[in-house]
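I can't quite decide. Please look over this sequence plus C-alpha cells:

:::
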Amino acid sequence: MAVILARPGYFVKQRLLKRFQKCRQAGVRVRYLIIINVWNGRSAREIQKVLKVHNTTVYRVVKRFKERGEASLWDGREDNGREKLSEHFLAELDRVVRSNAQEHGWRRPTWTREMLVETMSRKTGVRIHVATMSRALALIRARRANPRPRVKCPWFPAVKTRRMNEIRRLLATLPKWEAAVYEDEVDIHLNPKIGLDWMGLGQQKEAMTPGQNEKRYLAGAKDVRTGEIHWVEADKKNSWLFWDMLYKLTVVYAKAKVIHVILDNYGIHSSKIAIVALSNFASRVRLHFLPPYSPDENDIERVWQDLHANVTRNHTCTSMKELMQNVRYYLRKRNRKSIRTLIMRTAA
C-alpha cells in the first residue's frame, strides 16, 4: 500500500528541515525523517530499509501527521509532568545500588527491584513502577553479578598507604640499570574451572572432568616496563618453586645491578629456603612485600585471571600435558603482543 501525503510548500518544508536539524532526540528525528522521505516520494518499504523501522511505523507516523501536523512528531509524554528518571534520581540510584541493602534498613542483604523502588521513594520522594526501575538500572549500567570474596587488610590504613607509596616511588624512579617485576604463583588444575559461557535455548553445556584431578603450579614475574611474563613450572607449590623463579630472574636480568621483586606475603616467600636463596644471589634480588590481602596491588594477578579466562575455564583437555601446552602457548603469545606494543610506543 502506497503512502500518500500532500507535498508541502517550499517554506513549510524548509521550516520543518530546520527544526529537524536542531532536534537532538533520536526518536523524534526518526519521525521527521519518515515524513521527509514520504515527501520525497519513497514508499513505506523503501523507508523501512533506509531507516531500519517497521513499515507499520511509517503508516502510523504519516496518519498522525495528517491529523495533527508537525506536533505529532514529538513525544506526547512531555506533557505528563516532570521526568521521573532525572539525573538526580539516577545519581542517587547509582549510590544506593553500590551499597548493601541492610545499610538502608532491610533485613535482606541483596537488592531486589521492589526494594530499590521503596528505598528510592523514601530518599527522593519519587515512586516508579518496577518495570521503570529495570529501565533505570539499565541507564546507570547496573548489572547482577557475583561479589568477589575478600579479606580485610589487618594493617592500619596509614601504614598500608605508606607501604604502597614506597613501592610506587620505587617504580617511578627506577634507574635504567635496575629491573622490577611483580611476582605471584598460580594453580593449574586438570579439572576445568567452571565459568559463564553462551548457550543455546534449552541447552546446558557440560564441562567434562577427568575424574582424577592433576595439578601443576606456575611462579610468574611480570616486568613493570615491558609487561613481559617470565615463569617457571613445578609439581609442587613450595619454596623450591620460588627459588627457581628467583634464579630465572637473575638469568633473564643478568645485566641488571638490582632486581626488585614486588610480591605478596605467601609463606614460601619468606621461608628459610627463600632467605638462603637471597643470600646466594649476592643482594642482587630485593623483595618488596605488599600489604596483606591486597591482590589488586599486584599487577600479575590480572595476568592469571586472563590465563584462566582464555585457557583453563571450561577447557576440554584430557591430559595435563595438553593443558600445559595451551598455558605456555597463551603466555608466549601474550609476551609477543606486549613486545609489539612496546615497540609501537617507542616508535611513536
User: Anything to note?
Assistant: The chain is about 45% helix and 10% strand. The beta strands are 178-189, 215-223, 229-234, 258-263, 285-289. The chain has a mean pLDDT of 88. Residues 85-98+112-143 form one domain.
